[in-house]
Amino acid sequence: MQDLSPSPAPVPQPQPEHQPESTPPRRSLRQFMFSNPLHLIALGFGSGLSRVAPGTVGTAWGWLAYLVLQLWLTQAQMGILIAVSIVLGWIACTVTAKNMRVADPGSIVWDEVVAIWIVLWLAMPMGFWGQLVAFGLFRFFDAVKPNPVKWADQCFKGFGWRGGFGIMFDDLVAAFCTLLVIAVWRWI
Predict the structure, then answer these.
(1) Residues 41 and 84 sit within 8 Å (Cβ to Cβ)
(2) From 78's CA, which of 68, 93, 172, 175 has a CA 20 to 30 Å away?
């Protein structure tokens, strides 16, 4: 015997009007990273794909990359590489954030990479423990964001070139704060 009673109408589910900022891209981040060379740079050549503390992983990758690069580059060449990396990072962060539809995604770590390069470039020579202290100080300033890093983080928000610069700017200020602490430490 067949039930001929009318079935209840399905309850429509509300649809979000826009994606929240925490929504990852539809494709996997790995596919996304390889879809554009600027994504590869912004995501720190994969170091930003870490599920845990991508900023710290990106900074560690930057530290290791610096140690390898200094074997082949002079101080002047390293300075030129850093200057080019800031401009290229601004472009890469702008494009990647726009394509991810997130103003400042945690997986974009090129800002951390360049910032730790600046710290090491200006503070070297240092042994392992000095480098570890520099790493820890930078991560403190970048993650906790005391002023003036907090101010820098709030200056340039959104999408487009302004937002891309903002992604880089707070980390450059965190690098400056790190260098200031190291300079005071060496002076005392």
Answers:
(1) no
(2) 93
* 141-183 pLDDT, tens digit each: 999 999 999 999 999 988 889 999 999 999 999 999 999 999 9
Tokens of 25: 């891209």
H helix intervals, 27-159:
29-34, 37-42, 54-69, 75-100, 110-123, 128-144, 149-155
The answer to whether residues 100 and 42 touch, using CB atoms and an 8 Å cutoff, is no
Dihedral (C-alpha) 177, 164, 156, 53: value to the nearest 10 degrees?
Answer: -50
Tokens representing residue 146 in the block: 């005391």
pTM listed for this prediction: 0.84
Question: 15: burial class by Cβ within 10 Å (0-12, 13-18, 19+)?
Answer: exposed
